[in-house]
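Input sequence (78 aa), recorded before submission:
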Amino acid sequence: MKQTTISASEFKAKCLRLLDEIAEQGNTVVVTKRGRPIAKVSPVSADRKQLRGTWKNIIEGDEDIVYFDTAGDWEALQ
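Predicted structure, token format:
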């Protein structure tokens, strides 16, 4: 992965071509204004897999995990 530094005016002139290169090659572009870096343009990472439903049809539970009775686990004080 290559990092390139360009001025804001050059980025403005070549923006669409640079975005295509970033998407295809995975390069990163640092945009400068008056020699100071102001922005970094890099490719978006792959979408994260949604965790909801990951364990569906893999594990089974006989008990209700939200409402459960713990009364038998405690000794009453008298």
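Checked by second reader. Residues 1-44 form a domain with the YefM-like fold fold (CATH 3.40.1620.10).
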